[in-house]
Amino acid sequence: METEKPKLNIPKPGFAKAFDVLTVALFAACLVYLLLHWNRLPDQIPAHFGANGEVDRWGSKFELFILPAIAIFLWIGLWVLEKYPHLYNYINLRPDNVEIQYRYGMVFMNVTKNMSTLLMVFIMWQLTDIALERTESLNMPIFIGILAVLFISIGYYFYRMMKL
């Protein structure tokens, strides 16, 4: 489209709203979990993991607040982008496919936003459990599974948008 991209009012799909609620609820639950166990956490907690899931750096327990800060920053930033699909760069935007492209773009941002946040929730939960000696290492199958869902969904939406 050579002219300015139209601004359309695309309603958010119900599953995207439900995904937002689920993600925010899990994020809040993880923060509550962290705060409930705060006084029992040792001064040094896992801060980094090797490819095998084993802790390879320890840091201050206050570093646990970096992950929620990153999650909040990502969630808000992608939430704003989700609301304005006309601002995205599209490869093959045409008058006959603009609405579906915007819809795919919104869903893409929603999935990316929520999966990124869920990844942070998982890591916060795992760091807390390792510090409390409830587990010994990062659960790599779940970690890789979350990353796989994130990257597969990115690839899927990119493919769908290209196909249009």
TrEMBL record:
<protein>
    <recommendedName>
        <fullName>DUF1648 domain-containing protein</fullName>
    </recommendedName>
</protein>
<feature type="transmembrane region" description="Helical">
    <location>
        <begin position="21"/>
        <end position="38"/>
    </location>
</feature>
<dbReference type="Pfam" id="PF07853">
    <property type="entry name" value="DUF1648"/>
</dbReference>
<keyword id="KW-0472">Membrane</keyword>
<keyword id="KW-1133">Transmembrane helix</keyword>
<dbReference type="InterPro" id="IPR012867">
    <property type="entry name" value="DUF1648"/>
</dbReference>
<feature type="transmembrane region" description="Helical">
    <location>
        <begin position="58"/>
        <end position="81"/>
    </location>
</feature>
<feature type="transmembrane region" description="Helical">
    <location>
        <begin position="140"/>
        <end position="159"/>
    </location>
</feature>
<feature type="domain" description="DUF1648">
    <location>
        <begin position="26"/>
        <end position="71"/>
    </location>
</feature>
<feature type="transmembrane region" description="Helical">
    <location>
        <begin position="102"/>
        <end position="128"/>
    </location>
</feature>
<keyword id="KW-0812">Transmembrane</keyword>
